[in-house]
Design goal:
3 domains; five-stranded mixed β-sheet; globular
């Protein structure tokens, strides 16, 4: 039986951790080792955007120790990721390079959307519990050191996911001085987060009935809920009892009771207050604390990609649903998007031998179609630029910042003049590979969008046949198609330039 040992490393805001997993097709994945080092990287990152040299030195020592352990366990592959603390550094690229030169460990700085998508995968890895919970209205709360991610599910579908800058370490640093003169620290934290909480409630909880809350991460199960819980599920009343027994105690007392470092204990009250306030807003009935973390999500993602694991949950659909909800928020035309998506995918699928793109690029194309008109919500006269700005400012779960830029650029060039590489590189820093992908997606998006220029969905069917260096598109339409055919001419020229094939458009003969 083929097995692989894989190491997942999380360079977090207040600790650096590694789990080593064994993966096989028969058994899936199981944890072999779990190592954690306390290191407050976020302390300097959130306050001044810098990392002290002694922190860098300590991090390098930890990573060298991790490398030694990986060798002992026969680890064949690893993935090391940093999160919000690195994202807020002024010089993350320099720090990452310095760490690589000193340790040989390459750290990948995850976007917020990538980080929480992997965390979400760690919960989905517990398939029976996850599937059961999300049948009703469910919220996932992921309280990190720098930020909080809230994801809402309704009947197995991801409705929305939003990030708020109210992580436990960030709050502790912001309120450090005020805490010294305030006897009710919990109330201070409540007031600090209230504005963001009310904003989230107003924008995203209209007519939402949230019955369950999943508490993401292993911080609570390592501190407040150390003892085993049946199915790791507790009622709201049980949580409130634990809350009352926790938030009024000094950090030193909490540290002694839980057997943890006093500095670690200082994060308990902010975390509990955040959870309590969101649970109150949701009026949830049950809380599930599975005790999984980003490390489990990294292993699950690796197992999926290497075919060790076959997930019962469709994560790609979650990304598409999230994009669809963004389009809905900006009042994009549903029928036009559906029709244009079908056309774009037909063209994409017919050209696999020519375009060299795969499933991930197909997903990016679908999202580009979903969002290509969102800028009309802001300006009918500058749709392309407004759409670009909306996409770049909106996190889409599961997508990296680079992927979001690819989508935003394809949407921008859908209706504006395509900018050639020397100018694009100067303006945005897009590398050659991303530039070529933007050109390919733009060419397909332009063609598909022009076929429904009137938004009447005149094309009832499209047959695409690639033969040698010629792509024949046979359009099935019973309506007057002269507007679309006239506007397709310049799209055809760009399409042929990008793919180096001849495009032939024909109307299907009707008997």
């Amino acid at each position: 039986m083929a097995m692989t040992n894989f190491a997942a490393i999380d360079v977090g805001s207040y600790e650096v951790s590694m789990k080593i997993f064994e993966l096989s097709k028969k058994l899936g994945f199981r944890e072999l080792n779990d190592i954690r080092y306390r290191l407050e990287i976020g302390q300097g990152a959130y306050s001044v955007g810098r990392m002290d040299m002694d922190v860098v030195d300590a991090l390098c020592e930890i990573l060298i120790d991790f490398k030694r352990m990986m060798q002992e366990f026969g680890v064949e592959e690893y993935r090391a990721c940093a999160t919000s603390a690195f994202r807020e550094l002024e010089n993350p690229i320099i720090i990452v390079e310095q760490i690589y030169q000193r340790t040989g460990v390459h750290i990948e700085v995850l976007s917020n959307a990538e980080q929480h998508f992997l965390g979400y995968k760690s919960i989905a890895a517990i398939e029976t519990g996850f599937k059961k919970m999300i049948q009703k209205g469910t919220a996932i709360l992921d309280v990190g050191g720098g930020s909080l991610q809230v994801s809402l599910f309704d009947k197995d579908a991801l409705v929305t996911t939003q990030s708020l800058k109210m992580g436990s370490l960030r709050i502790r640093e912001r309120l450090k001085e005020l805490e010294k003169t305030n006897t009710h620290y919990d109330q201070l934290v409540e007031e600090f987060i209230r504005n963001d909480l009310m904003g989230f409630q107003r924008l995203y909880l209209k007519d939402r009935d949230i019955k369950n809350v999943i508490l993401m991460g292993d911080f609570l199960t390592d501190t407040i809920f150390q003892e085993d819980m049946q199915d790791k599920i507790i009622t709201k009343a049980e949580f409130m009892k634990r809350y009352e027994n926790t938030v009024y105690k000094p950090d030193q007392v909490l540290a002694e009771e839980m057997g943890i470092d006093p500095e670690y204990a200082t994060l308990i009250v902010p975390t509990m207050v955040i959870c309590k306030n969101f649970i109150d807003v949701f009026n949830a009935e049950a809380l599930w604390a599975p005790g999984v973390s980003l490390l489990d999500g990294l292993a699950y993602d690796f197992g999926e990609k290497k075919k060790f694991i076959k997930s019962a949950h469709n994560f790609e659909n979650d990304i598409l649903v999230a994009a669809r909800n963004i389009a809905k928020r900006y009042s994009s035309g549903k029928s036009h998007i559906q029709g244009t998506t079908a056309l774009a995918l037909t063209i994409f699928d017919s050209m696999k031998k020519v375009h060299g793109m795969g499933p991930r690029e197909r997903l990016l194309l679908q999202i580009a179609v979903q969002l290509h008109d969102c800028g009309k919500y802001i300006s009918m006269g500058d749709v392309a630029e407004c759409s670009y700005r909306i996409i770049m400012a909106t996190e889409i779960i599961g997508l990296s910042t680079e992927e979001r830029q690819i989508i935003a650029s394809a949407v921008r060039y859908n209706t504006t003049e395509f900018v050639y590489y020397d100018k694009v590189e100067d303006e945005t820093g897009v590398d050659r590979n991303r530039y070529i992908l933007i050109a390919k997606l733009t060419a397909i998006l332009r063609l598909a969008n022009a076929m429904d220029r009137s938004h009447y969905q005149k094309v009832k069917g499209l047959k695409a046949v690639l033969k040698d260096r010629e792509l024949q598109l046979v359009i099935d339409s019973s309506q007057d198609f002269s507007l679309e055919l006239g506007l397709l001419k310049d799209k055809v020229v760009f399409f042929e330039e990008v793919f180096g094939i001849r495009l032939v458009l024909r109307r299907k003969r009707r008997m």
